[in-house]
Amino acid sequence: MVDAARQSKIDLRAYTEVERVEGFVGNFKVTLREKAKYVIADRCNGCGDCSSVCPIEVPNYFELNIAPRKAIYVPMSQSVPLIYSIDMDACIKCFKCVEACGPLEAIDFSQEDKLVTEDIGAIVVATGFSHFDPSVMEEYGYGKFPNVITSMEMERLNNSAGPTAGNLIRPSDNKNPQKLAFINCVGSRDKRFNEGCSNFCCMYSIKNAVLLKQMNPKVDITIYYMDIRTPSKGYEEFYDRARKMGIHFTQGRPSLITEDPETYNLYVHSEDIALGEVIEHEYDMIMLNTAAIPQPDQNEMSSVLNVAQSPGGWYMEYHPKLRPMDSPTDGIFFAGACQGPKDIPASVAQGSAAASRAGRILHSKEWEIEPTVAVVWPDRCVSADGKSCGLCSKACPYGAVDYAKGKAAEIITAKCHGCGACVAECPHDAITQLHFTDAQILAQMRALLAEEPHKKILAFRCHWCSYGGADLAGTSHFEYTANERGMRVMCSARMDSDFIYEAYRLGAGAVLYSGCHPQDCHYITGQLIGAKRAKRLSTIFERMQMTPGRFRIAWISAAEGDKYARVLNEMQAVLDNMPEEQLLEEIERLKPEVTKRLRRFPNVPGVQEAMDFSDTMVTAITTKESAA
Amino acid sequence: MSDITGYENEEPRIGVYICHCGSNIAGVIDPKEVVSFSEGLPGVVRATDTLYACADSGQKLIKEDIKKYNLNRVVVSACSVRMHEPTFRAAVAEAGLNPFLMEMANIREQCTWAHGHDPDGALKKAKDLTASAVAKATFLTPLDMITVPVTQKALVIGAGVAGISSALDLAEQGIETILVEKEPTIGGVMAQLNKTFPTMDCSI
Amino acid sequence: MSHENTIETFADQVKAIPGGEHLEMCYSCGTCVSKCMIQQKLEPEYNPRRLLRMVMMDMRKEAFESPTTWYCSQCDLCYPACPQEIHISAVIAAVKQLAVEAGYSTPLSTVSVDESLCAGCGICVMACPYEAPHLIQKEVDGVMDLFSEVDENRCMSCGICVAACPLGAISRKGVSNKEIIKQIKVKKQKSIPSLVIFICDWCLREDDDLSILESYPANVRVIHIPCSGRIDPQMALLALRAGIDGVLVCGCRPGECHYQHGTDITTCKMSLLDTMIDQIKLRDHRVKFVQIGTQERGRIRQEIDSMLETLNARKEPH
Questions:
Q1: Dihedral, CA atoms, A129, A133, A136, A142, nearest 10 degrees?
Q2: CA-wise closest residue to B196 among A155, A606, A69
Q3: Of A149, A202, A286, A541, which has the most beta carbons under 10 Å away?
């Protein structure tokens, strides 16, 4: 902590929040909100005279609200930076602090939040985790029985810098507890609250038990656990040491805590798995090892940073094994528990790893980005003819379209992230996306639907989420119908209505339109554009009286392999439930309708060539297959 | 802008590589059947199977073939683009081909692994996916990476143990680093702890 | 490449029955075992966690013979407590269904119907939480008539039907009307009030609380019944007629009843009784129904003491 403050290259901004992140790798523009401290940082010498005269006391978050702080405060005496700040919600403006500060004149009630913008090349997100509130688990009586506390509260009670100077007392009568129990997995590995394992609690409870035992070998300590997980170096040995010290380990998840109304002692009811018997033991005090959960503002931050979340709310890395520190957005990296619960050694290691990943970029003067950007055919853009349009610019999540009536729209390449929203939205087919042109996509579709198209399910997936979901379905071996034929584009916003119509014109049995959940979209608002279009298509097909389920919209994240498999199997069931003749008859009936809507499609540059080529391709495929 | 479609510029000469991925793909379908299917597709001048396309030997095969058969497009039917697209792009680039003239078909994650109990269906799908990649490859155009300038300054959000460690490492590499913390003190949860395991040293 | 599974395991069979699907989610934490009170109070061998394990290990015979299969009364205290969200009682019910199909039958002593008294009114059918009784047509003494018949494999022996039967045609060994009425007698003393407590077997989880019951002198009479739903309001009136000062009925907190909704039935009955007592102008506060939660250690003492205090205040001449 102190090192960070001393390092000359580190510009430490405490009491500051990230308000907005714009731009792209190497060129982020970050807006920071420096919250008003009402104390001038340069003048405050951290003496604390102000705090000692302040008449207001409120709970101190740093002490888990079990001890008070003043309205003008530092969270702890070792705070870095050691600069006081005033909590305006609590302050009564008696100005005693101003008086106490005297000639330093460090207090300034006129301060306001300040917004500052910084140019940044790469970002490391290390926003950490929060603690599960066990009061929702009535069975453990937290908040009702005074001597049931959380381990974090105990951490402060047992800390020499804490409110009791390290004298562990129990809240009901301030006596030193002699018989204590820890309960692990409170709110974690629990489908009702948090499905995942919180990773560090086993070691954490063992550590606390060892500390207590070291202080007073006579205390009787039991740890209730489901499994003890000690997977890192030295951890199992540490667990051994705890057992040798006489700490009891009972396998069995307690189902209930009751309290003696007179002594405030507690009774833990659990099964002792080893005995196969129900046991009930009395304790002076019980510590709950609560689950690690995402920060309360993690959803908000995830939209500020434009990064996705895994189920459970943690930030989702690009690839769990190959690129564990990278977010899906180039230039943004994760470190520590914001990406999933982890202990101190792992967090430190990740901090270094993320620094190294970010360093690759920050040590370069230039960085390469994918050229899969949008390009305008100026001669097709109606804006050049003086007509007003601007749909491309409206669709772009990044303000990368330079649009003005009277000249052809232009894409600012450095700002373009390559989602393809403008390409699909342009009603005059005047924009294309490199590497994902209409011609390329059409040629792919034709090949996939060459044979028995009515038996096939053409699945459009966005690269970042649903393609990843399909990958996960495979790696998890969640089997689904082999009639699926997958197409990949970068974003659901690129899924042009023409592609969908064309699929039905070619006689596809069913079409899936899938992308990210709205909050996960890699391109900020790309999914919204895709979703709007999909909904419109769905209404149109409904009006055409297409059998429900032959066109399906599904938002599937990269973590939802099971959902991808389920959706595909449900679509297969729709086809299975239709007699073949009926399906073929419906396909034929709808062909003129969709063809009508494809009038302009062959005019898109390259599409006619792709169609001609596809005829050759289809012939080749059918010849090959009939020979086989 | 005619090079966007690219089709008219040169006759495609496509090489198709069907990966076994050990038994991950070959345990469900016979890659040789996909090879013989691919041989008749328009533009394909070379089709073969390889035990591991991503291994040195597989990459070497592709690189040699590019020269030997004068290939101007490459299709690799193997795993997910999220896995090995960078590998094969680099491989074709080493052989002098523009990396964007390589196209992958995902016949592992999205085929043999997802349809392990339907080998016939999986084979059909693998052929279709390969044909589809050949079709796309036909229309691929060479592209150059876009270079952008880099502001040599880092932002670390959150000054807990991970953020501090990250900021210190960046700073010690000589990079200007802004370390932002929303609370009045840095340290995060770690600062609230008593001793830490397994060494039992102080947390601050 | 076909991996078709041709042998149907015990687990497959259980999972095929609705409710049994989540069987394999169990990671043996033991929450259900200690949440349930059967092992403590009734049958030391009772252990749902082990039953689930037996199913997973294909131990059919052991599972069918296990008391767990038969003693679970589907109170579902364990279901909301299970961190894996397994509907344990439904899994047990699935095992029981297979056991019955395999010819096993319940070891519980269940209720019996006296056909000479049964009028076939069907009130027992409505009262039973387990759909154990049903009406059948049968010829007795040459006359076709409706009678109640109890499926012994469904009956959990709570006695709710015994209390519900208007003709006293159903009885359960140990808690028949006669056996209970016989217990309603208190050694009365002039100076202190007398009290009868009807207490269900399940509302006091802790042994400490049970010993509180025994700590009172002879003026307090404790009558144990399987469920507060077993109480017939008439019994309270009988007690009052016998000159006893007060009647305290104890049951489980709503949602925690060992027999699903016995305690709710008692709530209805007791409020009807209150109205009746009002109508016949008997002085108030002499009959009380309390519902005790699993976490309310020591509450029974407070309730008895406060009842005695009330009765005492009434007894003292003004």
A1: 150
A2: A155
A3: A286
Cβ distance A468 to B124 less than 8 Å, yes or no, reads no
Asked if domains A130-293 and A369-434 share a fold, the reply is: no
**CATH number of the A436-627 domain:** 3.40.50
C294 contacts in A (CB within 8 Å)? 256, 258
**Residue C171 corresponds to which tokens in the numbers above?**
């009885």
Q: Which residues of C touch A184 (CB under 8 A)?
A: none
CA–CA distance, B147 with B134 (Å, rounded to integer): 29
Tell whether A359 lies on the interface with B, counting CB pairs under 8 A: yes
Q: Which of residues 145-204 of B touch A (CB under 8 A)?
A: 145-198, 200, 203-204
Based on its alpha-carbon atoms, the radius of gyration of chain C, rounded to whole angstroms, reads 22
Helix residue ranges, H only, A310-409: 344-362, 391-395
CA gap C234, A80 in Å, rounded: 74
Within the 118-177 window of chain A, which residues sit less than 8 Å (CB to CB) from chain B? 118-129, 152, 155-156, 158-160, 162
Residues of chain A with C-beta less than 8 angstroms from the C-beta of B93: none
Residue B199 to residue B194: CA distance in whole angstroms: 12
Q: Would you say B19 and B76 are in contact if contact means Cβ atoms under 8 Å apart?
A: yes
Phi-psi domain of C230 (left: phi exceeds 0; alpha: psi -120 through 50; beta: other) = alpha
| A&C contacts, CB < 8 Å | 82
Reading the block at residue A18, the tokens are 């990230």
Cα separation of A315 and A298, whole Å?
8
Ordered by where they begin, the domains of chain C are: 3-101 (1.10.1060), 108-171 (3.30.70.3270), 174-315 (3.40.50)
- Record: contact C27-A226, CB cut-off 8 A: yes
- Tens digit of pLDDT at every position of chain B (204 positions): 334 444 446 789 999 999 999 999 999 999 999 999 999 999 999 999 999 999 999 999 999 999 999 999 999 999 999 999 999 999 999 999 999 999 999 999 999 999 999 999 999 999 999 999 999 999 999 999 999 999 999 999 999 999 999 999 999 999 999 999 999 999 999 999 988 877 777 766
User: CATH topology for A369-434?
Assistant: Alpha-Beta Plaits (3.30.70)
Beta-bridge partners for C200: C225
Q: What is the CATH number of domain A130-293?
A: 3.50.50.60
Q: What ipTM score was computed for the predicted complex, to two decimals?
A: 0.89
Cross-chain residue pair A192–C39, CB shorter than 8 Å: no
List chains adjacent to chain B, taking adjacency as at least 3 C-beta pairs closer than 8 Å. A, C
Contact C39/A277, CB-based, under 8 Å? yes
**H or E, element range at A553:** strand A551-555
Residues in chain B closer than 8 A to A448 (CB atoms): 128-129, 131-132
For chain A, what are the domain ranges?
A: 130-293, 369-434, 436-627
CA A201/CA A134 separation, integer angstroms: 15
Residue A556 tokens, joined: 């599937």
Residue A306 has pLDDT above 90, yes or no: no
Mutate to test the interface with C, among B28, B117, B120, B123 (most CBs of C within 10 A): B117
Residue B36's SS3 state is helix
Asked if C297 lies within 8 A of A261 by C-beta distance, the reply is yes
> Model's pTM, two decimal places?
0.87
Q: Quick one: closest CA in C to A274, which residue?
A: C30
Selection from A223, A216, A346, A345 nearest residue A289 by Cα: A223
Distance between CA atoms of A344 and A520, rounded to whole angstroms?
28
Check: CB of residue C185 under 8 Å from CB of residue C162.
no
Interface of C to B at Cβ within 8 Å reads 1-3
Contact call for B179 and A10, based on CB within 8 A: yes
Residue with token string 């002792």: A272
Across the A/B interface, how many CB contacts are shorter than 8 Å?
A: 429
